[in-house]
Design goal:
heterodimer, A: alpha+beta, 7-stranded antiparallel beta sheet, 3-stranded antiparallel beta sheet, 13 helices, 28% helix, 20% strand, B: 200 residues, alpha/beta, 5-stranded parallel beta sheet, 5-stranded mixed beta sheet, elongated, binds protoporphyrin IX containing FE
Chain lengths: 355, 200
């Protein structure tokens, strides 16, 4: 299908909207009526047609607007994209993986023509036609990681692997759930996860690391993570928290359906061929509460998850103060009926709201 | 002097040990303020150590310098500040031969910064020891303006660069040798609790 790209904003007037198509394919993260941290990883080998899992790097209607927002963030704060000196090769690996994947998965939008190291990249939606020499930085307008991630939705952490450990040694981070690349760069897997409650004690990070160290080239993996964001703000960075934090206090019972968003990250893991680094794309999807509840199963389930979420998690995710108002709103969409297992909307089989 | 026992914390927060004499032809000790006491304890354990030791010491208003000098180390340097001493630290580390033993003692800010210098000079982590002594002051980075405020002893505190009121996190970056400070009144502007001494 051809994608109609929206012209929308993720700041100021917040004109971001999801079409019906985007709502139906939203990566709803709860496969049952409750949530707790777990080592929730699976192979990233495609998914149902049209779903966000189908392609290696999903492109959707928000592509161009997200790329405009990224450019604004970088103009304000160039430290959002950093790469330690030994990570340049991993940057080229990343560029190759994304260009090859996108040109194969979306041939009508992207083209890659290779003649030895002489490459031509065509990004039709963004109007880019660039000829360059692979592995020669002087032939691109910026470093390879920055170049390709200015054209790809989602944040990117690039992990160097040494001493049986992953090190966050490069990244492009402008749509993050309140963590700082500039602060975390150079940290290892346990250090950058240090602020997360409960999961260390549960042994989750030890097991997750073991899994990640063994991710093989050509066999990527994925998982979902989620949090809550007031207004469709992509740049919920600690850097700008003194500016956006106040927006959390603007919810009212009247506006919560439109303003409160569930924020879901589709996180994938790719082994890179030359550098042996691990690429960790973190793709952010936003959906307003009022759009979630148009899927009866999701409305019922989200109410139960938010209601029963342990206090530590609601605090860490930053919505403990707004939880009562969320529950008042979501409770209207929970009639107590059972929900079908799994994350899919099941619109044809789940009953409409009975109240 | 009794040592402060830091309560258990998150995984990014450094932990410190107790210096012990190690075998080796060359020893570099970098300390500030009460860190001198850890060096005095070391010297008391191994009479032969000081003849092979270079001490770099930043008194920060304390008066341990004479006691250290009296240990008759092979080399002794007293610096007025860390910033003034760092070029010398780099030179000494750069000139070091295989097997140099590094001992860091005193405040977290001093140890964190000197640790970075030692690691980037290629000293293996196994040859670097640390011991916290004296002030529990922290070196803090403001996550908003990126400015570093040295010797923070209260939570919250005022960023010495941008003036925001910041709360003190335990999240720590070795690269920056700093803890993270985050705006405390972002969700309720002007509502800044009275500063409390750290660990009180
Ligand atoms: C190597 C790739 C990964 C990177 C770069 C990464 C990075 C991060 C970062 C920066 C945070 C925020 C920490 C903070 O508060 O400052 C985070 C949170 C978290 N990460 Fe990871 N992570 C990775 C893989 C994983 C994996 C495989 C798991 C599997 C269980 C995981 C589980 C979590 C959890 C549970 C949280 C807390 C999220 C929340 O409650 O909102 N991470 N991660």
């Amino acid at each position: 299908m051809t994608i109609q790209f929206n012209n929308e904003t993720f700041r100021d007037d917040y004109s971001f909207r999801n079409s019906d198509w985007a709502i139906k394919r939203f990566p709803f993260p709860f496969h049952e009526d409750s949530y707790m941290y777990s080592v929730n990883m699976e192979q990233h080998r495609g998914g149902p047609e049209g779903s966000v899992y189908e392609k290696r790097f999903d492109v959707d209607e928000h592509y161009l607007s997200e790329m405009r927002d990224r450019a604004l963030v970088l103009a304000d704060d160039p430290l959002r994209c950093q790469s330690l000196p030994h990570m340049t090769l991993a940057g080229w690996d990343t560029l190759e993986l994304i260009m090859v994947s996108k040109s194969e998965d979306y041939p009508d939008l992207f083209e890659l023509h290779r003649d030895g190291n002489r490459w031509r990249w065509v990004n039709k939606p963004m109007g880019i036609d660039q000829t360059f020499t692979f592995l020669d930085e002087t032939t691109l307008p910026c470093g390879p990681l920055e170049y390709i991630t200015r054209q790809t939705q989602g944040d990117f952490a690039v992990l160097d692997q040494r001493d049986e450990m992953l090190w966050m040694d490069a990244g492009m981070v402008t749509t993050q759930a309140d963590w700082s690349l500039d602060f975390d760069i150079g940290m290892n897997f346990f250090e950058w996860h240090a602020p997360v409650p409960l999961a260390h004690e549960m042994g989750i990070f030890k097991r997750a690391l073991k899994f990640l160290l063994n991710v093989q080239q050509g066999a990527p993996a994925r998982r979902l993570n989620w949090t809550m964001t007031v207004n469709p703000l992509l740049d919920t960075s600690p850097e700008n928290y003194h500016k956006w934090g106040i927006q959390k206090t603007t919810l009212t019972p009247e506006n919560i359906g439109a303003k409160q968003h569930l924020r879901v990250e589709l996180q994938t893991f790719f082994r890179l061929p030359r550098s042996n680094a691990l690429l960790f794309p973190i793709r952010c999807y936003l959906i307003a509460f009022q759009d979630i509840v148009t899927v009866p199963k999701w409305g019922r389930r989200l109410h139960r998850v938010v209601r029963d979420l342990p206090e530590e998690l609601a605090t860490y995710k930053g919505f403990i103060a707004n939880r009562p108002m969320m529950l008042d709103y979501l409770g209207q969409y929970d009639d107590g009926l059972p929900t079908s297992p799994g994350v899919w909307p099941d619109l044809g089989t789940e009953p409409p709201l009975q109240k | 002097m009794s040592k402060f026992q830091f309560p258990e914390s998150i995984a990014s927060r450094p932990v410190y040990g107790t210096l012990e004499p190690r075998p080796g032809k060359a020893h570099l000790m970098i300390a500030d303020a009460e860190g001198a006491e850890a060096i005095l304890d070391l010297a008391a354990q191994d009479a032969g150590l000081m003849a092979k030791t270079h001490i770099i010491y930043i008194p920060k208003g304390t008066d341990f310098a004479e006691a250290l000098r009296a240990l008759e180390p092979a080399q002794f340097y007293e610096g007025p500040s860390y910033a003034a001493s760092v070029q010398r630290i780099r030179k000494v580390l750069g000139d070091a031969h295989m097997g140099l033993q590094v001992y860091l003692a005193g405040t977290e800010g001093l140890m964190g910064q000197a640790m970075n210098e030692a690691v980037s000079a290629g000293i293996p982590a196994s040859a670097i020891q640390t011991e916290h002594r004296g002030s529990i002051a922290r070196r803090m980075q403001c996550v908003h303006c990126k400015g570093i405020t040295e010797d923070v002893t209260t939570d919250p505190f005022v960023c010495s660069h941008c003036g925001l009121n910041l709360f003190v996190r335990d999240h720590y970056s070795r690269r920056l040798a700093a803890f993270q400070g985050v705006c405390i009144d972002a969700e309720d502007p002007g509502n800044v609790p009275a500063p409390v001494e750290l660990y009180k």
